[in-house]
Model the fold of this input.
Amino acid sequence: MRLSFNNIETAFAYKTNKELQAGRFLFGTMNYAWFAAIGVRLTPFLMKTGLPVHGAIRQTIFKQFVGGETLQQTAVVAKKLSNYSVQVILDYGVEAKEGEKNFDEARDVFMRVIEYAATQLNIPYISVKITGIAGVDLLETLNSAPRLRSGVHDHEIEDAAWERVRERMYDICEVAAEKNIGVLIDAEESWIQDPIDRLSVEMMEIFNREKPVVFNTIQLYRHDRMNFLKLYHNIAQQRGFLLGVKLVRGAYMEKERARAIQKGYPSPIQQDKSFTDGDFNSAVEFCIDNIDKIATVIATHNEYSNLHAAELLDAKGIPHNHKHIHFSQLYGMSDNITFNLAKAGYSVSKYLPFGPIRDVIPYLMRRAQENSSINGQTSRELLLIKSELRRRKIQKSIKVPVATAAT
Done:
C-alpha cells in the first residue's frame, strides 16, 4: 500500500497562501499553552459583554474551524471540498441550550440540514448533539437514577420531558432515513451519556434495519468503552439491526478528571494515552472484523490509527470506499490525512460545523483546548503549514519565465 500522509502539496492544494498564513498565525498562537488557556476562559466572557470581538473571532479561530454562520455560507466550503473528493459531515453547532421552544427550533434546523444534505452529492452525514434538543439537567437525572436508566420512570415531569426528546429524535431520524442521510449522535460527558446511549439503541432498532442511518459516538478515552462496543454489538445482533458507531478518542478529558476528583468517584478516563490508543485501535479492528454488521466512522487525527485502519482494509481485501467504513477529521485540522486519504480513494470527510458565532463558541473553545493539550498536535499542524508555504516559495522561485530562459 502506498498511502502516505507526508504529501503536503496534496494536503493543502485547496488553500491559498493567504489562508495558510492565517493558519500559521493561529496555530502559532495556540502553540503557547498558557495563551490558549487564557483565551478559552476569556473569550466566552468577552462575547457576553457585547464588546466588539466578533470580527476578530470570525477572522481567526472561527474561519479556521467553522464553515460559516449560515447554511448558505457553509455550502461554499462544502463545494470547495467536493472538488477534491472530500465529503462533509454537517454539524449545526447548537448545544446546551434550555427551553422547549429552543429544543423544537433546534430539531427543525437539524431536519432542514438533512433536507439540504440530501440535495448534495458529498454530504452523507449530519451530526446531532442531544444537548441541542434536551436539557442537561434532564439528562443528568436520567443518567444518575437507576430506575429511570432502566426505563421505569417514577417522575412524571422527567417522563414527559424525555418523551418529547424521543419524539424530536424520532422526527430527525425519520427524515434522515427517508433522505438516505446518516445521523451521527455526538458523545457527551460521562454523567449525561447513559440516556443518550439508550436513545441511540432505540433509534437504531427502528431505523437501522436495512441500512445504517443512526450512529452513536464511542469515546475510547473512557476505559469502559471497548466493552461497551462489544455489548452494543451483541444487542444489535440479538435485536436484528445494523450497529452504527463513530469512533473517537474523546473531547472532555480534563473536565472528566476534574469532576471525578471534585466529587470523589473513580475517573472514567484511561490511566494514560497509551491505553486510549490501544483501545481505539482495538475498536477499529473489532469493527472491521464485523464489517457486515457494523457501519463505522473512524474519526481521528492520529496518523497511525488511520494508516492501521487502511492497512486492515487492504489486508482483508475490503474496498477503500466500502459503504460501512468512513474516515473523518475536523475541518481546519489534519488536512494531510484527509486529502491524502481522499486521493487514495478512501471514503473520507471533514466534520464541518456551522452556526452563529455565539452558538459555536463552546465548540471553538474545545478546539483551542484540544490543540493546546494534545501533545504535539499544534506543533504538527504548524510544521505542515510552514513546510507547504516554504515549498510554494521554492517552487515559485525556480519557475523561470520562458523569455528570460531564451536569452
